[in-house]
Write a structure and sequence with these properties.
Elements: E1 8-11, H1 17-28, E2 32-37, H2 41-53, E3 58-62, H3 68-82, E4 87-90, H4 106-133, E5 138-143, H5 156-176, E6 181-188, H6 197-201, H7 203-209, H8 221-232, E7 243-246
Parallel strand pairs: 1-2, 1-4, 2-3, 4-5, 5-6, 6-7
Length: 258
């Protein structure tokens, strides 16, 4: 406990799933948290209550991160409340459309690219300028996916967004090393979040979906949050530009039986 004492963390999409679990874990470790959401105000308020139950401060900001002006407003509000931001977690997401490229509309593709590339770009740019003004130091954690490496038919929009976010992470790691800002990826496999609501609700569906996972289960959001704590802490001071895959061995199973 206390690994993030008195740090200010901004976690996008912290109204549910991995983002919510990360906000709560960060608070347990001593951080104050900026909680963001797009639609789920109730979920965001629940996150705030959980953060404050740990004796830390939480503030909720509604923002559509696909819009540059909304990102700027988010950071303006964060700084007005807490004075600065030390940790940025780019977590907000939308699932793949399930549409193959031949039938994929520009609007559907654009939604994922704005969510997974533009939003983290805008958030990271503003965060870096805040940290530069404060003399450097800080952590950026980008939540990508095993699908940054492993594509799926019907998920070009999602796969392209996550792959681009991986390379944004690597580029930022090089650029921000002189400022001592660490930048890393968290790349989960299957996690029991609203993205996988059918598996959350139905054990039979879940059993079928985890068949290709060597560990034979999906991750809980709290497990991803535990790794995020490490990457946000001083214990990860020498870690930058890396992707941390957390998938129960799923990616090691690729090609078995070929």
């Amino acid at each position: 406990m206390g690994k993030l004492t008195d740090k200010i963390a901004l976690i996008t999409g912290s109204d549910s799933g991995i983002g919510q679990a990360t906000a709560i874990r960060f608070a347990k470790e001593g951080a104050d948290v900026v909680i963001t959401y797009l639609h789920d105000a109730q979920g965001a308020e629940q996150t705030r209550k959980e953060v404050e139950a740990q004796g830390r401060r939480g503030t909720v900001v509604q923002a559509d991160l696909r819009l540059e002006g909304e990102v700027e407003r988010l950071f303006d509000e964060a700084v007005s409340v807490f004075g600065t931001v030390h940790i940025l977690v780019n977590n907000a997401g939308v699932d793949a459309s399930g549409t193959e490229v031949a039938d994929l509309s520009t609007e559907e593709f654009d939604e994922r690219i704005k969510t997974y590339v533009y939003a983290p770009f805008w958030c990271s740019r503003r965060f870096v300028n805040i940290r530069r003004q404060d003399g450097g130091g800080g952590k950026i954690i980008n939540v990508t996916s095993v699908h940054e490496e492993q594509p799926r038919a019907g998920a070009a929009d999602y796969d392209c967004g996550k792959g681009a976010l991986r390379n944004l992470t690597r580029t930022l790691a090089l650029e921000l090393a002189p400022l001592h800002i660490n930048v890393n990826n968290l790349a989960p496999g299957m996690v029991l979040t609203p993205f996988n609501q059918e598996a959350v609700d139905d054990p039979k569906v879940r059993q079928e979906q985890v068949r290709s996972i060597p560990w034979k289960r999906a991750a809980e959001p709290q497990e991803i949050a535990s790794l995020a704590v490490f990457l946000a802490s001083q214990e990860a001071d020498y870690v930058t530009g890396s992707t941390y895959v957390m998938d129960g061995g799923l990616m090691q199973n690729t090609g078995q039986g070929a």
